[in-house]
């Protein structure tokens, strides 16, 4: 059966690359979207079966535009994939670096290439919709003073030239994508759990939640705090830790965690991805 998979951006974005790799060998129909809210709304009403959403980058950290939406939707994370991010300086064919005055790309891509802009102070960084759309835009402009930051797939798709490859700050620049769905699917080999929770606004509340993991010998992989809308300087938390929901030890730990929280929801239990080499 063909599954419908949503992702943000146009042809050549790193989100599309994540979809291609995650669903490789499966029968799937990719559907591109302008924003994450539309993706989650279509997932919520059954237009989509799955979505691949970026949640974390090794250079710029958590991707708040997606993570902040999770509390509003009953989604389940059922898998993840990491994609190495290689940002290339892409131009029209025949363009020299000396002629470039503006570089277009998504704000996160620009922030991942801060060293390039520090070394080229005469070049202005211009925030744009996404990396691939930036490549498409400079092709439409047909202007040798404009360039874009994007993937090699975007350059190939739009028939553009990679003038300078790998301009990102870090050689280990990677983005982690979660595969989410409305269905509560759990891989028997799952070894990672994502949790959303909030605690009472009083001393020791977070400490007592995290202590449960230590008491049950569960390794915390990531903890992220995010503001709670409408509650001034109060925060909710996103937590990743090792384990499988079928494990009695994990079930007991979650029972104790829930007793210490105002709100607690398992976002997913899935197989942890291996970092792309």
Any chance you could write out the topology, listing elements then pairs?
Blueprint: E1 3-8, H1 14-22, E2 28-33, H2 36-44, E3 50-57, E4 61-62, H3 64-67, E5 76-84, E6 88-91, E7 102-105, H4 107-111, H5 114-119, E8 124-127, H6 131-141, E9 146-150, H7 152-157, E10 161-164, E11 174-181, E12 192-198, H8 205-215, E13 220-227, E14 235-242, H9 248-259, E15 263-270
Parallel strand pairs: 1-2, 1-3, 7-8, 7-9
Antiparallel strand pairs: 3-4, 3-11, 5-11, 6-9, 6-10, 12-14, 12-15, 13-14
Q: Can you tell me about this structure?
A:
26% of the residues lie in helices and 33% in strands. Helix 8 runs antiparallel to helix 9 (248-259). The protein has three domains: 3-85 and 173-181, Periplasmic binding protein-like II (D-Maltodextrin-Binding Protein, domain 2); 88-164, D-Maltodextrin-Binding Protein, domain 2 (3-Layer(aba) Sandwich), CATH 3.40.190; 192-270, Alpha-Beta Plaits (2-Layer Sandwich), CATH 3.30.70. The mean pLDDT is 95. The longest helix is centred in the last third of the chain and has 12 residues, at 248-259. It is an alpha/beta fold. The strands form three sheets. Strands 1, 2, 3, 4, 5 and 11 form a six-stranded mixed beta sheet that branches.
Order of helices and strands: EHEHEEHEEEHHEHEHEEEHEEHE
Full CATH superfamily name of the largest domain: Periplasmic binding protein-like II
**Unreliable spans:** none
Can you tell me the number of structural domains?
A: 3
CATH architecture field of the largest domain: 3-Layer(aba) Sandwich
| Cα end-to-end separation | 31 Å
Chain oligomer state: single chain
**What share of residues is helical?**
25-40%
Q: Which CATH class of the largest domain is shown?
A: Alpha Beta
Report Rg: 21 Å
- Shape category: globular
What integer is the average pLDDT?
95
**What portion of residues belong to β-strands?**
25-35%
Task: Report the strand count.
Answer: 15
- Name the structural class: alpha/beta
CATH-defined topology of the largest domain: D-Maltodextrin-Binding Protein, domain 2
Main β-sheet, in a few words?
6 strands, mixed
SS field, number of helical segments:
9
